[in-house]
Give the backbone structure.
Amino acid sequence: MKEPISSKDLATLIQAISEPAISLSLDIRRAGLLEHVLGQQGNLNVQGEAQQKLDVLADEAFIRAFQSCGIVCAIASEENDDYLAFPSDAGLNGEYVVLFDPLDGSSNIDVNVSIGTIFSVYRRISPKGTMPDLNDMLQPGTEQVFAGYVLYGSSTMLVYTTGNGVDGYTLDPVKEQFMLSHETMRMPENGRIYSMNEGNIQECEQGLVRYIQYCQSRENQTGMPYSGRYIGSLVADFHRNLIKGGIYIYPEVPASPQGRLRLLYECNPLAWIAEQAGGLATTGRKRILEISPTSLHQRAPYYVGSKWMVEKAMAFLA
Ligand code: AHM
Ligand code: MG
């Protein structure tokens, strides 16, 4: 049994996440007025995607916060090729590694649509006082001790789990503080919303094509077609389905043979939240949290959401 994170360490990490998140949230609210926030940076990241200015700004802000919090020995982020170890004394003695997607839903930044930050925290495997290594970063999602996301939506929310349920906090922009607003969040066991980029449907496996037809038919448990909702920011689509019930799917497609989403920065943290709220997260065939990662930027097909909906989709794939 893994030992839960102590409340002292949790408070330190929440502080490290909240500070940049609050400042980013304020910048995002004024994005159209700030030269340094909107638009492309002019670089490609390790996945060959055009980096937005806000991707880079967010990445740097979170790295600084984790480096200076004193209990993190290394980080890895979607925006950097390799993991980054903090070689100071405090860094080497840090007990945790953090993997994160600093700005999820980048394509929505410039069009004033919800975006997010996703994070995942593990205890290091290498001994304290030594240089952390790749094995510290490549742990299965079952080993997470703290994970969550910040949603920069019509309000800004921090949602997290430490393995004892899921709580949601809303940013009070006047006090500049996250306040508990959604205690013990539960994902409805069934729902009537499906979220996927249906532009890809003709390139998907037959089982998935048939599942989407089932969602659109009167054959499902509601006797009515489900609603299709796809924001294109995983955090926002996930958060809506967490509250209302629903399924989010990003399958294997020819352009992304392993799916588009990154196992360590996106799939694992949200999979743990889903499970802790009573939902499920799988590749369509196996549990996300049990995958043993082999590389930092590894991707995985993703079926996450209400338990019965994910099980139904898996039955169609089988
Ligand atoms: P990003 O982290 O570079 O923004 O990519 C992840 C995003 C998810 O937020 C979103 O659900 C998905 O990619 C959208 O992809 P697509 O445009 O192919 O539907
Ligand atoms: Mg992302």
